[in-house]
Amino acid sequence: MQKELIKLEHISKSFDGQMVLDDLELKIHENEFVTLLGPSGCGKTTTLRILGGFVHPDTGSVIFDGQNITNMPPNKRQLNTVFQKYALFTHMTIAENIAFGLKIKNKPKSYIEDKIQYALKLVNLEGYGKRMPDSLSGGQQQRIAIARAIVNEPKVLLLDEPLGALDLKLRQEMQYELIRMKNELGITFVYVTHDQEEALTMSDTIVVMNQGYIQQIGSPESIYNEPENAFVADFIGDSNIIAATMIEDKCVEILGTRFSCVDTGFGRSRPVDVVIRPEDVELVEPENGIITGVVTHLIFKGVHYEMEVMANGFEWLVHSTVLSPVGQKVGIRVDPFNIQIMNKPESEDEEAVALEL
């Protein structure tokens, strides 16, 4: 079991009377890659800035390695932050940028030189020390910003949408670089993004946030395969989210037709929400389907076809490597294990989330 390193206890924060975080509770373990994921305005960056000491919470405590650091200034915390805008000093060489924090700490010259070379090697930019920031690409500048942070040997690296300004190919390359660095350094990463693919690719743990609340915490696999509510299901990848009725254990009525499922404990004749991922919808001959429909739209996505099928008054999203042309009549089948049952929202906050969808 990994050691608990960070604990946020009852954190609340508002700006100009607008609640941004409401009684947030979060635990982060040593050497964990944790991603705070959610739409703009959900509170993820505010959470990161509270961790870094740049924002003070209205209520609650930040506990780091057993110590209350809520009132500790940023420069005293064993955390370093990498921002989306790399904030490199344009009048300094790459080596001077990396050495900046170490010089402030009055580290010996030989120590600083060793750290510069170590950091450049770690980010695969050996030999770049004498160059100026404006001579580097966006991906290279981002690596230097990370190198400048890690030479200070933080226990935690905070990253605020650091890949947001990069093109798709560079973003994907940097995702693998960050995973490699995290494994080599053995430090804890707390990463903020609104990009679901980034979160699923890099994280040990994903914290899905919306409207100042944590919606779900879990591994990428559990977040994707077992979303706890409609917001998570809709935000993480594509989903068919359908109002349904749980007839009894292992039997759910979807759009007027009974489907077998594996869920139990929802009661009898209870309204529920059903989540079915597009890749889990199987298109078959009409006579072999549980329900039948007609293909209404088709897009080729490279690795699969994305189709929309109108069946029982609902437009099903389907991902398949097998083409069914527009206008074709098809049957729909879903494996019982791929039907995810969720309770209907009960609180006003949950209802607000549902209404947004």
Any key phrases for this structure?
disordered C terminus, 357 residues, OB fold (Dihydrolipoamide Acetyltransferase, E2P), Rossmann fold, five-stranded antiparallel sheet
Protein architecture, described:
- This protein is α+β, with helices and mostly antiparallel strands and 357 residues long.
- It has two domains: 4-225, Rossmann fold; 239-356, Nucleic acid-binding proteins (OB fold (Dihydrolipoamide Acetyltransferase, E2P), Beta Barrel), CATH 2.40.50.140.
- It has helices at 44-52, 94-104, 109-122, 138-150, 168-185, 196-202, 220-225, 230-235, 348-356, and strands spanning 4-15, 18-29, 33-37, 59-64, 67-68, 79-82, 156-160, 188-193, 205-210, 213-218, 240-248, 251-254, 257-260, 270-276, 282-284, 291-300, 305-311, 314-320, 329-333, 340-343.
- The strands form four sheets. A six-stranded mixed β-sheet has the order 6-7-8-3-9-10, sandwiched between helices. A five-stranded antiparallel β-sheet has the order 13-12-11-14-20. Strands 15-19-16-17-18 form a five-stranded antiparallel β-sheet, with no helix packed on it.
- The longest helix is centred in the middle third of the chain and has 18 residues, at 168-185.
- The protein is elongated.
- The two termini are 37 Å apart.
- The model is unreliable at 347-357 (pLDDT under 50).
